[in-house]
Amino acid sequence: MELDIDIEGWPAGAWDQLAERAAEAAAEVEPALANARLSASVLFTSDAEVHALNREWRDRDKPTNVLSFPMLTRDDLAGLAHDGPPELLGDIALAHETCAREADDKGVSLDHHAAHLVVHGLLHLAGHDHVDSDEQAEAMEALEIAALAKMGIGNPYGDRD
Q: Could you give the CA distance from residue 84 to residue 159 in angstroms, rounded to a whole number?
């Protein structure tokens, strides 16, 4: 998968490299993301920008840690041939202030939390979700944990089963 990464309002750091590593790890645990035809945009931005996006596209008047905007359905992605023109998987946006506050609250580095949220966002783009059932949430969390482990990052859900 090819990433188009834009960084606005985040502290200096290797955010582009972190996003690339997170995408590689996500593709290792979710084979549908391993299709070389896919591209996705990753925006590291401010709470204000994510708040505006959330209000405009989700009718939620608040910032959030990560937003995902899929362009393909899960079925379209599963049936996507490996040969052919590029396909836009979708866009994700991470809000710096919210991510930093959550990382601090969890006692983890911003790098590790941002990696988790990139993986989380990419899994949403691949059609995974966590809102309709506990089973759905557990399956998505298991993929996140596995992808982060490939990056040397511990379980972001702590001791929960």
A: 43
For every residue of 1-44, DSSP letters joined together read -EEEEEE-SPPSS-HHHHHHHHHHHHHHH-GGGG-TTEEEEEEE
pLDDT band at residue 161 under the 50/70/90 scheme:
very low
Contact yes or no for 144/133 (Cβ under 8 A)? no
Given this model, what pLDDT does residue 158 score?
79
Any idea what the CATH number is for the domain that residue 86 is in? 3.40.390.30
How many Å apart are CA 19 and CA 56, to the nearest integer? 25
Q: What is the amino acid identity at position 95? A: A
Q: How many domains does the chain have?
A: 1
| pTM of the shown model | 0.94
In a domain, 155, yes or no: no
Q: Give residue 160's Cα distance to chain centre.
A: 21
